[in-house]
Sequence to fold (471 residues):
Amino acid sequence: MESTGASGDLLALAGDGLLAGRAADGDSRAFGILIRRHAPVLRAYVNRITRRPSDTDDVLQEVALAAWQALPQLQNPDAVKGWLFRIAERQAFAMLRKQPQTAEIDEELPSADDSLARFDDRDLLRGALSRLPAQQARVWVLREVGGLSYDEIAEELDVPVSTVRGALVLARKKLLDVMGGTA
Amino acid sequence: MTDARPPSGPFEDLDGHTLDELVDYLDRGRTPLDPGIEASPACRIALAGLERLRLMAGGLLEEDAALERTHPDCWMTTVLDRISLEARPGRRFPVPGLPPGTEATVTEGALRGLVRAVGDSVPGLLTGRVRIEPQEPGDRMDLDIEVSMFYGFPIEDTVAEFRRRVVEILPRQAPFTVGRLDVRVADVVELPGAGAP
Amino acid sequence: MTDQLEPAAKDAVTVAVSAVPGVRVLYPLSGLPGSAVVRLRDHEDALTCELRLATDAAVPAREVVQGAAGAARRALGREDVVVRLEIASIE
Fold:
């Protein structure tokens, strides 16, 4: 069947659900399109969790391999993006566990300051996040961006729920301070 | 603004409420309405700040991604090389009626791939998941196929053409007859530049 | 079959089967990188030849199977070969 040349491009227009279904059936081309589509935000999420962008390619590779293995069990292919985020969290945590905490050197995360003339609320947030201790920033991102429950965060980071709550309070206070009570 | 502020920021004194409480209150969608919290100016400022933070958190990753230079994705090439060696074969359907000394099977993965290619060859249609049922291979199998349609193509005619091609091509390759053939249109996708009015 | 003959026999099968109409390519027999595309097993007077094929959608499966089995037997120079085929992809 030689007619798939044109549809190679057309496949890039397909929705996540269709691509996930095809990938579950073994279509690696559909899988490639699906993962590349979400790779930029997955990369950003992993960076925010680990604060080690230089390791993120390795984490993303593990995310993609784990996703390929687990796709046939995915119940709702339309929800594949959120599902990929859950896998990204797990792989990011796995990477954090593998590397000793003392090696935790914060690397430069994207900051708009020097690349854009605009300076808005989110730039403030970005700056404030980068000044938070890694664990506080991580917990805040997992809760507010990833939407994880306190229990889930505690389990993944292997700390008591009270520690998560405490870190979140500190993170929120500092972020609110920086953002100003100027609402 | 610097981070050298004393720890006692404006969110320390919340008229007897804690920040944690306010977050839980927000998580509940501010219902039932708590008159104590709502009447406190300090709480209302903190709530507004928390809501703003939450709003910004929503687009944070998309913005991070936009600010980053595009990354070469060699890691993805590695992934695709690895998974191409373990394409999902699924079940194996024995080819019946071969002479003694010759045995052959066709994998479920090969048949799904064929159905995908047949569907993709029909203008206006993209094939999604293909299910071959029942679980126990037999002489007659049912097919359940999910498809996406491109906007502007006549759904009925396009699906009919797809069915016609499946019925024509599959029996040459599948060691079973096609029983029920369900084609479900899961969604309609817009072609760029050919937008809806 | 002796160990010395085996690589040559496998090559002969690969070349012969690849030339059969409807055979696109021989796939490795396992997912491991560098895995062989032909497996020959010789025990109790019976030689077994295993292959995994990608085939052409335009040629009926039965035709490809019979063609490939015949080609493998001719390449091995004996008729009493049990040929086991798997069609792993139809393009």
